[in-house]
Write a structure and sequence with these properties.
It is a single chain. The chain has 565 residues and is an alpha/beta fold. The protein folds into 2 domains: 196 residues, Immunoglobulin-like (Sandwich), CATH 2.60.40.1930; 339 residues, Rossmann fold (3-Layer(aba) Sandwich), CATH 3.40.50.200. The chain has 13 helices and 25 strands. The strands form 6 sheets. The protein has a 7-stranded parallel beta sheet, with helices on both faces. It has a 5-stranded mixed beta sheet with strand order 1-5-2-4-3, with helices on both faces. Helix 11 packs parallel to helix 13 and helix 12 packs across helix 13.
């Protein structure tokens, strides 16, 4: 989509962004010359309701492209002055992350304070959790004689995935991005299912660790999870839940401090047509950048299967991004705190008993949750003990962990989309949760979630469901739309997007409650599609309620804004 960038370059320091408390502790223990890895979050996020209205009638792929384009526009506008400042400083490793509207960089603590004083910065947080990284399996051993005698891995048959294949649905046409240690694309069970886009220079995905086009596994974990998603059994054992799905291998920095590459991998998935993501990574509770990236992944229409972690059985042991809210709220969970693409997965054994290591909820550490009103987590459970799957360098190996349960769910999501490609992420999550096998306490709980996933029941429910925006209550929009103002209330910068079906001359102005025009934002030509704005509130504009009116070719839309000084 085309865009227009409108940005007032003068930055007021009347209102400051905040420094996350964990980062403040790191700063206190650093020297003046130490470079500290941080995420700098800019003001402004895409409005999901606006995207829904603007993309009415589009198919899944078109909607995803629109949402991605809108997010890039917003980030380009909101981050412009931040990036200019960083590039003129001693900052290193600067990366713009449009999916979270954040900038990753390494800067001194004095520079952190300077950036936090900017009105276009909403939060600065640490981008290096010393305890974060790959959620390692709790056990790995060679395949035993009994395990090797199964033509279909026990987890695949346990969730009735093979019964779905009998209906003709094997994940065909669905791209699943495996965000992990890479994938051994030479493995005979995986080679036929790898994604590639040779003219663009991609080689089965991308390696964000080494920043090249070769995401070959060098550790084994990613090959194992990839095999559970889509291993086709060519070497003798059917390990994949969705054996005809397409695997996009995204190799990330899976050690401490790799969180920026996790978001980059999610961006790649969203930008290159993936519908499902599978991630077995964890960072300290409350990583705002990861949560924001997953909230925006939901807006783009991606389903994200995420491991709960292997820190059970203690309550409250789920890591980020598994601590993000789900795309759909179970009736046992009071809706609050927004939604994201994340569906968090716990691990069960072949007797449908929760694994002792599987992390438990509730989530209480976010400001929108509390001990009295927590988030129930995990959302669902799946096979995660003694799981046989593909081995790096060939053959098979057995691993245990919530990392092994996660790709089972990702495979089920691929089966559902092959059966009904028009379902929304929220609809997919609701189908999976309500059709799961009830385990543990009645209803959704903090051990099993809604229960153990059942692929056949979920797909059968998907086949009977209409996957359209009408099901979400959307209405056919006019030829224009304007997003909600972000943030609202606003004191310094007002971020929003205008959608126009056709190009034309825009009149975008601000009016007070009496109908008096108090400011003009734009009077230039705009292009069809998404147009992002980041407007600095004039110093003379007092506190109160205002309305941003956008008119193009005689069509007018408006959005309410509260200014607080």
């Amino acid at each position: 989509m085309k865009k227009i960038i409108l940005l007032l370059a003068v930055v007021s320091i009347a209102a400051a962004g905040s420094i996350d408390p964990q980062l403040a502790v790191i700063m206190a223990g650093s020297t003046d010359t130490d470079l500290i890895p941080v995420f700098i979050l800019a003001h402004g996020q895409v409005d999901r309701n606006w995207v829904d209205a603007s993309t009415y009638g589009m198919d899944r792929a078109e909607r995803q492209q629109f949402a991605v384009s809108a997010m890039k526009d917003i980030a380009e506008v909101a981050q412009a002055d931040i990036l200019t400042k960083l590039h003129s400083s001693n900052a290193t490793g600067i990366e713009s992350l449009w999916l979270a509207n954040a900038v990753y960089c390494e800067i001194t603590r004095a520079a952190i304070r300077d950036m936090a004083a900017r009105s276009d910065v909403s939060l600065i947080e640490s981008a290096c959790d010393p305890n974060g990284g790959l959620i390692e399996p709790v056990d790995e051993h060679p395949v035993t004689v009994d395990e090797g005698s199964d033509g279909i891995a026990w987890g695949v048959s346990k969730i009735n995935a093979d019964d779905v294949w009998a209906l003709g649905y094997e994940g065909q046409g669905v791209i699943v991005a495996v965000i992990d240690t890479g994938t051994d694309y030479t493995h005979p069970d995986l080679g036929n299912n790898m994604w590639h886009d040779t003219p663009a220079g991609y080689h089965y995905g991308w390696d964000f660790f080494d920043n090249d086009n070769d995401p070959m596994d060098d550790y084994g974990h990613g090959t194992h999870t990839s095999g559970t998603v889509a291993g086709d059994g060519s070497a003798g054992t059917q390990t994949g839940v969705a054996p005809s799905a397409t695997l996009m291998a995204l190799r990330i920095n899976y050690y401490s401090g790799g969180e920026a590459t996790w978001i980059q991998a999610m961006e790649f998935a969203a930008d290159h047509g993936a519908s499902v993501m599978s991630t077995s990574l964890g960072s300290t509770h409350g990583n705002t950048s990861l949560r924001t990236a997953n909230e925006n992944s939901l807006t783009a229409g991606l389903y994200h299967s995420v491991a709960a972690a292997n820190d059970g059985p203690a309550a409250g042991s789920i890591l980020s991004p598994g601590d993000s809210p789900p795309p759909w709220f179970h009736p046992d969970q009071t809706y609050h705190g927004g939604q994201s693409a994340v569906v968090t997965v716990g691990a069960t054994d072949n007797s449908d008993v929760i694994a002792s290591f599987s992390s438990r909820g509730p989530v209480t550490w976010w400001s929108d949750y509390s001990d009295s009103s927590p988030l129930i987590d995990p959302d669902i459970s799946g096979p995660g003990v003694n799981v046989v799957s593909t081995k790096w360098t060939g053959g098979y190996t057995t691993m245990s962990g919530t990392s092994m349960a996660t790709p089972h769910l990702a495979g089920v999501a691929a089966l559902i989309l092959s059966a009904n490609p028009n379902l929304t992420v929220a609809q997919m999550d609701s189908l999976i949760e309500v059709t799961s096998v009830e385990l543990g306490a009645a209803g959704k709980d903090n051990t099993y979630g809604a229960g153990r996933v059942d692929a056949l029941a979920a797909v059968q429910a998907a086949l009977s469901m209409t996957g359209t925006q009408e099901a979400q209550g959307a209405v056919l929009p006019p030829s224009m739309g304007i997003s909600a103002i972000s943030p609202n209330p606003v004191s310094t910068y007002a971020s929003f997007s205008v959608y126009s079906a056709v190009s034309g001359t825009a009149d975008i102005s601000v009016y007070d409650v009496s109908g008096r025009r108090v400011a003009n934002i734009d009077s230039s030509d705009i292009q069809s599609g998404s147009n992002a704005y980041n407007w600095q509130i004039p110093a003379q504009m007092g506190s109160g309620v205002y309305f941003v009116h956008a008119t193009v070719n005689g069509n007018t839309v408006s959005s309410r804004m509260t200014v607080v000084r």
